[in-house]
Amino acid sequence: MSSSASIEIATNLQGVQDRIAKCVQECNRPEGSVKLVAVSKTKPVELLMDAYNAGQRYFGENYAQELMSKASTLPADIKWHFIGPLQSNKAASLVKNVGLDKLACIETISTIKLANKLNNAVESILSSSDGEQNKEQKLGIYIQINTSGEDTKSGISTMEEAKELVTSITENCKCLKILGLMTIGAPGDYSCFDRLVAFREVVANTLELENSEDLELSMGMSGDFEEAIMRGSTSVRVGSTIFGARDYSKK
Known about the structure:
This protein is α/β, with parallel strands linked by helices. The chain contains nine helices and eight strands.
């Protein structure tokens, strides 16, 4: 990549960070209370390295094979978030290839089948490790909620389903840790963010947490992350504003 492209990525990244910081300040929230996940799907590793060299450490990928490939070549201190639909038959290979130290979170859990597959993969890694792996280590997950009611969106759509899934994961998936909730929402419909906040209360009660804000909220993308922060987001997923438009032919 040219030096001008590197400078552009760094400038774009700083611009997003500045907008996040300004919004956090205006909402009277603590500095650093919103995490930026740079969505790098379909982007070449050179652009990711430009963002890395500018200080970015959290990256989000939508495709299992692409994440596995990038994680094997990029610096080990990158924290990867998987933010796309994950087929249960690819769960084990994703966990085993990327590893628990690098795979920070699977954001798209909405079935016990997928949770069980991930849990089994983590169990397998921990049982076969030779002492280097922390036996108490868990894989972080978000529960994906369909807050818009659109058929094209994945996720749980009712609070009863959310309670049932969270209860089942808590009882049966001891190697997974529910870190929070995630939604995509409908473009321009900011009430989707409010619905995710409401779902968080239900999940927090189910987990018997004293403070619902202990659960993260992954909501907001390039076009609406400031609105999401105003409504309580703790993690925003920004891609095109940092890296430019995506070329899906290079997936």
